Queue: 4 jobs
Job 1
Amino acid sequence: MTSITIRPAEVEEWSAIAALLTSYDLPLDGAQKHIADFMVAVGENGDIEGVAAIERYQQIGLLRSVAVASQGNGVGATLVNHLIATARKQGLRQIVLLTTTAADYFPRFGFRRIERQDAPAAVHASAEFQGACPASATVMMLDL
Ligand SMILES: CC(C)(COP(=O)(O)OP(=O)(O)OC[C@H]1O[C@@H](n2cnc3c(N)ncnc32)[C@H](O)[C@@H]1OP(=O)(O)O)[C@@H](O)C(=O)NCCC(=O)NCCS
């Protein structure tokens, strides 16, 4: 595995990001509007190896759209750890996520399952809560 760099996504990278998310059937709703919240993991050759975003709702972060080009190389963990550290520095209080595919992945970062109605009110305004993610999605939260 070549070394990767984590940096903010550029607007022109939207189509590559969307293609990666779509390849895993992850919802695009509201994502392009939040392109400024996306980070990309870039390999030495400049290719996008992974993406993830944290949308801010007051002092709550909504972690979404975590996807990697090649699974099992630590890129997901590098991205998630980077976003958690940044959220801490920015003074966010909690990070919430919805997932239908990776509920067993996130506990290693400290996320715990919660009931949908117990998610902080601020994130209920997000496109993900408003319908992009199915009502059956697992909701998870990390206290920072
Ligand atoms: C989930 C995902 C981001 C993890 O990134 P990654 O770079 O593959 O994972 P890492 O290399 O950091 O970690 C690998 C470990 O995570 C586990 N893992 C990977 N995906 C997992 C998943 N969907 N559910 C549970 N565990 C998972 C692997 O089994 C491996 O476990 P080990 O450490 O015990 O061997 C990546 O697999 C992915 O893009 N999945 C498809 C999109 C998706 O479901 N995203 C989550 C949306 S909320």
Job 2
Amino acid sequence: MASITLDHLGKSYTAGVDVIRDLSFDIKDGEFMVFVGPSGCGKSTVLRMIAGLETVTRGRLLIGERVVNDVHPKDRDIAMVFQSYALYPHMTVYDNIAFGLQIRKMPEPEIRRRVQEAADTLGLNDFLDRKPKALSGGQRQRVALGRAIVRNPSVFLFDEPLSNLDAELRVHMRAELSKLQRRLKTTTVYVTHDQVEAMTMGHRIAVLRPCGSDPNVTNLTQVGTPMEIYDRPANLFTAGFMGTPKMNLLKARLADDSAEVLLYGVRIPVPAALREVALRHKGRPVVLGIRPEHLGLAHEIDWASDTALSGNVEILEPLGHEVIVHFDVQGQTVAGRLRSHHGMPSPGESITLQVRCEAIHLFDPTTEKRLE
Ligand SMILES: Nc1ncnc2c1ncn2[C@@H]1O[C@H](COP(=O)(O)OP(=O)(O)OP(=O)(O)O)[C@@H](O)[C@H]1O
Ligand SMILES: [Mg+2]
């Protein structure tokens, strides 16, 4: 097993154009680390640099204690699973899984033992003699996993391995993969642009974004446990990216005495934890963050509040166990969460939702950083 260290890592495909800039953080031995971020932000590029499939332009990459910038992929003791499973169509499932070990000239009994163990783990026993074309997407995906597992590598790298699967199978495989990783305790880096996968699978998440042309901006916006990132997003990017539905981010102002956030006519008391920082920003514009689950109908909520937001309903999204309501507050659309269908207003009608004031977030509109 092994840790991975990114030390001021940088990548340019074209001279002068940074795709990855100044990326620094550690992935611990045995950790399940998820890279999440919008399309094109460089997730696959970083993963491919760790795998050795892309050169490192700047900085250092370490696996364990060893700098691997110039180490050949096959000498890095890693196994990678791609979105396209890239199985050999003319080989059986058994041979697909065994192939990597056969070319390493591993003794046949040991290969058989490892393939059998992987097949048991992944529920592939009934398919070992089949060719990939006679398998479902989920079964093929498990074969690709099996091929990685039998290598018993120090590091697993996954690049959106579930994105070809239908929704139900994705949820199933997501849980299976998490269980497998917890059992094997192999250091894992998992790339996805699906923030539900990130929240549910990772020990920690690194939220990435495109670094753009500003030399002071790196791709990393935040790294932390799923709940750290959800409960205390470090900046507007993370706040807006993690969470479904998204956090409401509203233009507001701190009162001159800093005790309240002013959102149009509504005065939201600043929670105790934010009083000190609010004092430093008194009278200034802020971005007010409220998660939809912290806005609810008075008779449905289980928190005390005499602060409410009102507006006309734009759309309702019934999800079965809850309804997301989007309503207009002075031209800004706000999402809230209703618990039941009973007495639900129709589009065009007005609605009033109570604010869970102690759960609000404040951001500086200029630096985009969390105030705390
Ligand atoms: N071989 C290449 N040559 C030039 N530019 C590249 C190359 N590979 C990737 N890029 C660019 O680098 C940026 C990051 O690409 P990358 O594939 O790492 O993104 P990603 O975060 O994995 O996106 P997605 O979620 O769509 O897979 C993109 O702007 C992409 O166009
Ligand atoms: Mg990618």
Job 3
Amino acid sequence: MTAIAAPRFLQSTVGKKVVMAVTGIILFGFTIVHMLGNLQIYLGPAKFNAYAHFLKSVPSLLWGTRAILFISVLLHVVTAVQLTALAGAARPRAYSFRRWRSASYASRTMMLSGPLLALFVVYHLLHFTTGQAHPHFIKQDAYWNFVTGFKVVWTAVAYVVCMLALGLHLIHGAYSASQSLGLRTARTAPVFKLVAYAITIVLVAANISMPIAVQAGVIKLHVPTEVPPVVVGVR
Ligand code: HEM
């Protein structure tokens, strides 16, 4: 594809679906790596805080990753809005009900799970990264923030609900990405479906286990590295 043809390709519906697929795969990959890193919470405060410290120890890697994630989220959201607008404009009113019914449950919920996940990411950053949405945040103690964060029942429940929405979103997203990238044939379709389901189920189960383990007392508080200014109602 020439440099002149590329922008025209990205303006087409096929091009936009490829953008959705590529950015979706990047974000899917991030959630897997992030989940594997977070599972170190089960190894205790020293290991988890060392891991959190390591993530921030190479600024070029940290900011490079953040930039890729930010651009991917932006392109994914903007392109999703554009594709929805295009589909709405192309769809004759009389057919809308039938098309809705023929879509799978996961694909019908894409437009609900997508915005919910966008809200989740904003809340999640304010909760665990910057601390504005965390009543007991201590800057240098990721383990403390993790456990005191999930000690709050409604927060734990909200994370579980959002991870279920993430599961629905990823199952449909991964499956349709294989189609958008032209990888799906009659023979490979069942394999893609199986792989998408298997990875998503493991990811969601692992993510959900963490707030539940804090609530169940399996992951316990430790003595924080610095005394928090106000610690109310945390046991
Ligand atoms: C139960 C599931 C999850 C847990 C327990 C969790 C935990 C955490 C923690 C503890 C941090 C802060 C790390 C630190 O600053 O030391 C963090 C950061 C972050 N999380 Fe999650 N996370 C979860 C799910 C997700 C999901 C599903 C996404 C994306 C869709 C996500 C995206 C991010 C991002 C973008 C950051 C900021 C990374 C940075 O500092 O640049 N997280 N998460």
Job 4
Amino acid sequence: MMEFGSRFRVTLFGTSHGPQVGAIIEGVPRGASIDLPRIQAELDRRRPIGRRLATRRRESDRLIVDEGIVGGAASGRRIRIHVANEDARSGPYEELRGTPRPGHADYPASVRFGTSVDLSGGGIFSGRMTVGLVAAGAIARDLIEPKGIEVLSFTRSIGGIDDALVPDESFAQLRARRDANEVGAIDPTQAAAMAKRIEEVRRDGDSVGGTIEGRAVGLPVGLGEPFFDSVESEIAHLMFSIPAVKAIEFGAGFQVARLHGSENNDPFYWDEDGVVSTRTNHAGGILGGLSTGRPLIFRLAIKPTASIPRPQETVDLIRRTSATIVVKGRHDPCIVPRAVAVVEAGTAIVLADLCLRAGLLP
Ligand SMILES: Cc1cc2nc3c(=O)[nH]c(=O)nc-3n(C[C@H](O)[C@H](O)[C@H](O)COP(=O)(O)O)c2cc1C
């Protein structure tokens, strides 16, 4: 299943080392204005180039619109966009054939699809597939922003270094802080410590994980579809599709297990504009699967990159022996900084879909 969404439908296509990767997006209303330079800017944020701490794969990721956007607006038919894969080097993956990388998708994928499955560069299990998600997310933002809905994500922690003190500022201000450092965190001192940690693990031939926080404001009260397509279910569904995401929590998340009802409940009050608000937001902006109108807040745990240049124990599926592998090829020592743009895009996709389903978009 390479398809997500009910009314705003995204289908990803391509593979890591095939000719191209991209997305088909259906459900964008005719005449909706599409900001092409913004799609390119979002693709650039996901790109490794210029990032000292990322993979050395050199991709220009130049956006190509195949169909569905005319003169900066949606034609009302399906939109197809892609970027070319320009720097695929399959050599290191040929050496790995039959010896699955611990922590990567190789083993279950070769049992399910056979050892001849295209796992070059990770095949469809590669982080490169998120190019299509980021492009589709930029289009989703073009739909929801005119309705006053804004999305934001940022690095919350890397390797245990936590950026816990997020100032109470506008998304524009937080975004400016985030974009001023190479790990996508808000606080510059913590960001520098995170970058140092990544550099250390890279030198050590290892990798490190972390957490990303996603937020959205301006959601109309009651957004979300009861029962199975709640805001939580839809966000979690999309986020778990992002490779390397292993956990998600909303609002107070796992902490709720330790709280009393008197501590966890978010008391309601009338704010200065006469709108119902809550004193706290342990619910992360969701009650009963529906938005409360308070900020949507969630955090994701991203695992340490599986492909590390250290000897690791594995099996040879063809000779049926034990084996040791050292993963070559170009890999991110930490996926978190590059996944920030993907999480933001994914949030926009879910919200655009839920808004269309609720009849809030034309
Ligand atoms: C933006 C991005 C970049 C990634 N880069 C790498 C990488 O360089 N090396 C690697 O082993 N995994 C990388 N991954 C993660 C793998 O694709 C993922 O761990 C693998 O498909 C197994 O899936 P799972 O971790 O969700 O179980 C990346 C993921 C994302 C989102």
